[in-house]
Amino acid sequence: MFKRIVLMLFLAALAVGGSFAWQYYVRTQTAEQDGVLTLYGNVEIRRVNLGFRVAGRIAGILFEEGALIKKGELIAQLDKEPFDDLYAVAAAQRDNAKENYEKLKAGNRPQEIEQARAAVNERTATLKVLESDFERAAELVKDRTISEQEHETVKARRDEAVARKKLAEENLNLLIEGFRKEDIAAAKAKVSEAAANLKKTETSLKDTELRCPNDGTLLTRIEEIGSVVNAGQTVATLSLQDAVWVYVYVSERELGRIAPDMKAAIYTDTKPNEPYCGHIGYISPEAEFTPKNVETTELRTSLVYRVRVIADNPDHGLRQGMPVTVKVSSVR
After folding, report:
1. What is the rounded distance in angstroms from the CA atom of residue 40 to the CA atom of residue 53?
2. pTM for the structure as a whole
């Protein structure tokens, strides 16, 4: 009885081993005959999380989920009023800085210079009169006709007139010379600063509009009209139409049969007789999944390598997560 059981187990093991050997033989012979490598994977479509670069209250969202949006189209809009106000203030500051700079660069007006020259002439005439009074007072004080105190009073008036004339002459010279180069340079720098601030507010004003970066489909509307959002907060998610690929995995035994830029046919269950065109874009240099560090020859072929197949999607029939079959005319 025991021998019979052992014999039956031996025959079963032999049958299973023969079956695996036959499948491997058939698969190898088929691959060698038609040179086609069949792989399986899923469609991956790049997504973009969209948000505003400035904070504010959402005033409008123009598309519903599932809508096809073209590059550059307006998707959402923030309330612009606070940004319009900031722009108006920055524009006024820029204009004020420009006016001040132009004033300093042009120098003083001829009327101001003539007015200062007239003041010099007036104080020169006044000083001349007081000089004469002082000379008479000096003679009279010798004869004791006037007191020393009266003489000192006349002298003080003369000295004051001298100082006033000197002040008027210095003011005239400053007006003729104009403003200092340092003041003009500082005024010019203020113009540049004000212009940069105006540009910044203009950029913030433009950032109140959320526009589509590339052709795609609106997947989700995360926020709605009236929501107050922070800068960088995700408002909607966009699925891009042009960045479509399929991730498949190749064993180490079959890794040498493929190479970058090789043509590939991508089959879907929806249109099994109408494959999509594609090509191999990337082959991972490292094995993935477990085991990753097996050393034995028997198990080393269990390692797999990720391959990215870039797909053409003219009718947008390839969708996120869709299972597909990829056939590559492999190289031996």
Report:
1. 40
2. 0.59
Instruction: List Cβ neighbours of 326 (8 Å cut-off, separation of 6 or more).
Output: 38, 39, 40, 41, 246, 248, 264, 265, 266, 267, 278, 309
Residue 187: C-alpha distances to residues 60, 153, 198 (Å)? 42, 47, 17
β-strand partners of 229:
56
Using a 10 angstrom Cβ sphere, with 0-12 exposed, 13-18 middle and 19 or more buried, the burial of residue 97 is buried
Q: Determine the 3-state secondary structure of 38 from DSSP.
A: strand
Say if residues 197 and 94 touch (Cβ distance below 8 Å). Answer: yes
Contact 327, 38 (CB under 8 A): yes
What is the rounded distance in angstroms from the CA atom of residue 225 to the CA atom of residue 57?
A: 8
Contact 31, 329 (CB under 8 A): no
Q: What order of strands is seen across the sheet that includes strand 209-211?
A: 209-211, 74-78, 56-61, 228-229
* Segment 58-85, tens digit of pLDDT: 999 999 998 999 999 999 999 999 999 9
With CA atoms as reference, report the closest residue to 239 among 217, 213, 212.
217
What does the H/E/C string look like for 236-272?
A: EEEEEEEEEEEEEEEEHHHHHHCCCCCEEEEEECCCC
- DSSP character for 301? T
Class of domain 34-45+242-329: mainly beta
Kindly tell me the burial class for residue 272, based on how many C-beta atoms sit within 10 Å of its own C-beta (0-12, 13-18, 19 or more).
exposed
HSE, side-chain direction, 13 A CA sphere, residue 246: 30
Pairing of strands 234-251, 36-51: antiparallel
Which residues does residue 145 pair with via DSSP β-bridges, in sequence order? Answer: none
| CA–CA separation, 54 and 11 (whole Å) | 75
Burial 53-89 (b: 16+ CB within 10 A, else e): ebebebeebebeeeeebeeeeebbbbeeebbeebbee
| pLDDT class of 291 with cuts at 50, 70, 90 | very low
Is the CATH number of domain 48-81+207-237 3.30.390.50? no
Q: Give the chain's radius of gyration (CA, Å).
A: 46
